[in-house]
Model the fold of this input.
Amino acid sequence: MAEDRIALLLRAEIPGVRARLIGALRDFDRAEDALQDALERAWERWPQDGVPDRPAAWLYRVAERRAFDALRHDDVVQRHTTLLGSDAGIAPTPEDLLARADFDDDLLRLIFTCCHPLLRPDARAALTLRTVLDLSQDEVARAFLVEPRTLEQRLVRAKRRLREAGMEWLVPSGAELDARLDDVLRVAYLIFTEGYSATAGERLTRPDLCALAIVLMRRLNRMLRGRAEALGLLALMLLQDSRSANRTDPAGHPVLLDDQDRSRWDGAKIREGSVLLEKALHLRQAPGPYQIQAAIAALHANATSAGATDWDQITALYDALLKVDDTPVIRLNRAVAIAMARGAAAGMAELDRLKSITTLQGYHPYHAARGALLWRLQRRGDAVRCYRTALGLVRNAAEAAFLRRRIAQLEAGEVFTAAAAPGGPETPQSY
Amino acid sequence: MQYMLLIWENEALTAAKSEAEQQAVFAEYMKFTDDIRNRDVFRAGDPLLPSETAATVRVRDGKPVTTDGPFAETREQLGGYYIVECETLEQACGYAARIPGARDGAIEVRPIMQMDG
Done:
């Protein structure tokens, strides 16, 4: 029990302590070594002595001492002493300063550093998962389905880039904050969507990544208040995650939105997501893509039944979304919303307009949506061809099994009915 | 005498808990609530959504000003409350100590001013 409690406390404090160490040393690896030493020390002392009053300050104090010892014994001590801005050698943080230390400030700086535009998007997400969300290197590798060695190289390159660029250690301000916050939100959403619909692998979801992205957005919103898009993104995540228990059956196969048991959706997450969205909209900053997507998700989540879904409103929101974020996937989702609001023929006409977009041609949900609408239009042969194209592109085993089931139904000559294919066409939003 | 038991929770600790750990805490709260209901001590009580959902309103120069976030940006945030009927402050503190949140955060015990005379 005491050990559980220590583990929990450490989990809560590690990110802040690590952030402050990286800020003080301007070096991810030295910070990590020092942190690991301090954690070892905590596991030696805390079970006997009890947990200190301010665990983060305790850990930082021990780690800082270790880091300075290591620096002194290191041949690069000269360079780092200059970096630390002290001519008289390395001095530990004075006690009174440490007592007032706000580890959250450093954590916020670390988040902006990890999501720095200098880094490639996949490196940003990997570094954020590793340092801010405290996954091990192996866990991060598993999250992105890459070899641990590949991941390690990716992290090494990212850390080197930041070091070479001088690693500014600050939270951007003014107009720059908006642009940099967009980068941070994109990384958080990338982590979430990676968990929400794994691009490859056996199972449809990796819920641990969704939970981590939500933790990240909670922290961000607590440290940076009054940012409508940041609130909107947390709302969007909670609303989508409210269905997580129902999106796959026990075998891991996707269950379409309309087939899901709505009574099993997580009501607390839906309520919190809806409240956060309302709050974000009340801030009256121009609604960006996350608030609009959250509004769409809220319409799905709060509909009492699939049939009660307000597809006209959803179509209007997709129109608004296209104005701020015109991407092929959003156009696809809008076409599907139109099919639901005005019928399969209207939806098909919209999809035909997207034919020339090459990125969609390689995107399996586009072909699956075409197949679904063609089936509704009684064009079974064309529908099978589309589902086969989708099957050739899909990398996720659970989704592949779903497409095979559709093809089998069509080849058996099954006529489209609500019972044969309950609910709307399959899109990335519909699971 | 009625007492309000304000549950100040460390949200960073709550966030660090796994789904299973959070469910275990929830079950403990249910058990505690059932118990004080059975003893006829419970008068009211609810959990609150996390502080990201909070807004704070002040009226300045006659105009309401609403800001995002809770009243105070501290590590501990109000996470829920109970109103209990007890004879003494000591009894109320005894119940406060049994609230699961007391282990991670703190319970503030405040006697309620009776307005009905």
